[in-house]
Design goal:
The protein is mainly alpha-helical. 56% of the residues lie in helices and 6% in strands. The chain has one domain: Winged helix-like DNA-binding domain superfamily/Winged helix DNA-binding domain (Arc Repressor Mutant, subunit A, Orthogonal Bundle), CATH 1.10.10.10.
């Protein structure tokens, strides 16, 4: 679920799913053996942890300074961006089988705030949200409403691209 438990020995939090989910368990000793034998896998896992940290920072900023409408718009943008990256969107829409109460819980809002904000996003003709399905009618407008900038998600980058870029910028050679 995350690599903190692997590196720290135990998780200090729990995880849950909102839909039926299949999981696989990799014992820590097996993961340690794999990362020692295959440095590229270790780098990919490290990169995953760094991206998790970037997402965490973005969400903390959102909770701390965005309005209810901005938080919801940002969430809808992030979900669309992530799902599009893995081919799970259809012409600007995607399945999002969550309730307003679940959205409220994830964003630190009341269900009343969520309901009012979704209505406002509909009135602005940015989205429609019905029966677990989101349709984005104005992507640029929704991004502005949610202050969404996708860079923190690092979609499409591999673990070696950053090293190559740093080597080019510093004038040094990439070390493999």
């Amino acid at each position: 679920m995350d690599l903190q438990g692997f590196l720290l020995g135990e998780m200090d939090h729990s995880l849950g799913t909102l839909t039926a989910t299949k999981i696989g368990v990799i014992p820590h000793d097996r993961l340690l053996e794999t990362t020692e034998r295959f440095p590229r896998i270790a780098r990919a896992l490290w990169q995953s942890t760094l991206i998790d940290s970037a997402v965490f920072r973005e969400w903390m900023v959102g909770i701390g300074r965005r309005s209810a409408l901005q938080r919801i718009a940002h969430l809808l943008c992030e979900m669309f961006f992530r799902l599009r990256a893995v081919g799970l969107t259809d012409d600007g829409s995607y399945n999002f089988p969550v309730t307003q109460a679940e959205i409220a819980d994830s964003l630190g809002l009341s269900t009343v705030h969520v309901n009012c904000s979704l209505q406002a996003l509909r009135r602005k003709q940015l989205i429609s949200f019905q029966s677990g399905h989101v349709a984005i009618h104005n992507w640029e407008g929704l991004k502005v409403a949610g202050e969404f900038e996708s860079r923190y998600l690092h979609v499409g980058r591999d673990a070696s691209s950053g090293r190559r870029k740093m080597a080019r910028e510093s004038g040094s050679r990439e070390v493999r």
